[in-house]
Amino acid sequence: MAAAIGAGIDVEKPEGSMIVDIGGGTAEVAVVALSDIVTSRSVKGAGDSYDEAIINYVRKKYNLLIGERTAEDIKIQIGSAFEYEGEGAINVKGRNLIDGLPKDVEVTAAEIREALKESVYQIIDAIKTTLENTPPELAADIYCKGIIMTGGGAQISGFDELIRKSTGVDVMLAENPQYCVVQGSIQILNDMDNDKKRKYAITR
Ligand SMILES: Nc1ncnc2c1ncn2[C@@H]1O[C@H](COP(=O)(O)OP(=O)(O)OP(=O)(O)O)[C@@H](O)[C@H]1O
Ligand SMILES: [Mg+2]
Prior knowledge:
single chain, Nucleotidyltransferase, domain 5, 2 domains, binds magnesium ion, elongated, alpha/beta, Actin, Chain A, domain 4, 8 strands, binds adenosine-5'-triphosphate, about 50% helix
C-alpha cells in the first residue's frame, strides 16, 4: 500500500491498480482499490536472490567464487530480464575455486539473463496469478492503466518489457522506484487522519 501511494497512485479511487514492488528480500504483487488490498501475492526472494543466482551461476560455469557486492554490481551494470540493444560483457574478478588464486573472466549480459531467469519468472507467475484472481472490473482497469513497478529490483533492465510481453498489459516504472515505499509511508503519516493510518497499518 505504501509503495502504491509512493508511486503516486490514488488508492482511494474505486479503480483497480496493480503494483509490483521488487525489493531486496521479497517481491509483492498487489491489486489495490478503494484504499484496500484486493488481492496480493508475495514472492520470497527478490533483488538479493538475484545476486545469489549470479554467484551460483558464475561458480558453476567458471569455477569462480565472487562475493555479494560483486554480484550486485554485475546485476546493476549488465543484469537484464529482456534482451536490450548494445548489451555487452563485464570483466568479473574473483577467486578460482580450483587453485584458490585470483582469476577474472568475461561474463556476457546474455549469461546473466540466463542466471536470473528462474527468479524473474517467479515474479511473472505471481503477476499472472494475481491478475487471474482479480475481479473482472478491476482487472479491466489494470488493462487500461497498466501495471506500476516499484522497488530497487524493478530497475533491472527489461523487467518491464518482459512483464509487458508475458501479460499483454502495459507496464510503467515509478519515478525513483527504490524510494516509493518510504515516500508513501511519509505521505500516510503526514496526510491522513488517524482512522486511515490505522487501516493502512493493518493492511500495509
Ligand atoms: N539499478 C539497479 N538495478 C537492479 N537492481 C537494483 C538497482 N538498484 C538497486 N537494486 C536492487 O534493489 C534491491 C533493494 O531494493 P529496495 O530498496 O526496494 O528493497 P527493500 O525495500 O530494502 O527490501 P524489501 O522490500 O525486501 O524489504 C537490492 O537487491 C538492490 O541490489
Ligand atoms: Mg521494500
